[in-house]
Design a protein that fits this description.
Blueprint lengths: L8 E4 L9 H19 L3 H15 L8 H8 L3 H7 L10 H11 L2 E6 L3 H10 L8 E4 L10 H10 L7 E4 L3 H10 L3 E5 L16 E2 L2 H7 L9
Parallel strand pairs: 1-2, 1-4, 2-3, 4-5, 5-6
Helix pairs in contact: 1-2, 5-9
Length: about 230
């Protein structure tokens, strides 16, 4: 259980945390390789053998999340291809009620994502979330992914917050560990980022399984809380 009286700032990831990760997994693992295969007149198996190692080599780096990088690397219009299956973008169950409760509580609520601005814009077109946040931050704004301590220092310089009085929710365990190293006091993982995949072990982190549980526990921040 979270002690909401000890939390002034809530930092929320987007993909796999607020949005179902199925869209991204399907795009990068199936749809994009299929279009890459069509582009080269080859089989899907050939395309996967070509692009999967390229993606693995960049995992956890800013390029892994950069649509401009993959557009150049693969010679494919990545943003346009994402738009072709944008109907798969969806909000996780109970997430909107949780966001509304956070907004009503008066806390500072910031979206921090590794998603490229092109991907962020597309998703905001499909799922209107902007009104729930004071700021929408892409790690590309700073030039460092959330896995890097440099991101957290840049974030705090841009948006002052007390790490010890901050809750951060993310589906990436490595990113949660980076936040913990920076001193973020309350951390939650996501048990099932992709609704089409099985729940996973979140290791040392407590996990969100149902946002309704967090919503019920959320009380308005007292006016005398700094």
């Amino acid at each position: 259980m979270l002690n909401w009286n000890d939390i002034d700032t809530v930092l929320l990831d987007m993909d796999g945390t607020l949005l179902d990760l199925h869209f991204d997994n399907h795009f990068w693992l199936e749809y994009m390789p299929r279009r890459y295969a069509e582009h080269h007149g080859q089989s899907l198996e050939w395309a996967k053998a070509e692009v999967y190692p390229l993606m693995r080599a960049k995992q956890g780096q800013l390029e892994w999340y950069c649509l401009d990088y993959w557009t150049r690397e693969l010679n494919l219009p990545i943003v346009e291809l994402k738009r072709e299956i944008a109907h798969l973008i969806s909000l996780r169950p109970d997430a909107r009620d949780f966001l509304a409760a956070l907004q009503h509580s008066g806390r500072q609520v910031i979206l921090i994502t590794n998603a490229h601005r092109g991907s962020l814009s597309l998703k905001m077109e499909r799922v209107e979330l902007m009104t729930y946040f004071q700021r929408l931050i892409s790690s590309h704004d700073f030039g460092f992914p959330k896995e890097a301590q440099a991101f957290w220092h840049a974030l705090q310089a841009e948006i002052p917050f007390d790490p010890q009085r901050t809750l951060f929710i993310d589906d990436s365990l490595n990113i949660l560990r980076a936040a913990r190293d920076f001193g973020v006091g309350s951390l939650l993982a996501v048990r099932q980022p992709d609704s089409r995949s099985a729940p996973r072990d979140t290791e040392e982190f407590d996990a969100v399984e149902d946002y309704a549980v967090l919503t019920r526990g959320l009380e308005k921040k007292p006016s005398n809380t700094r």
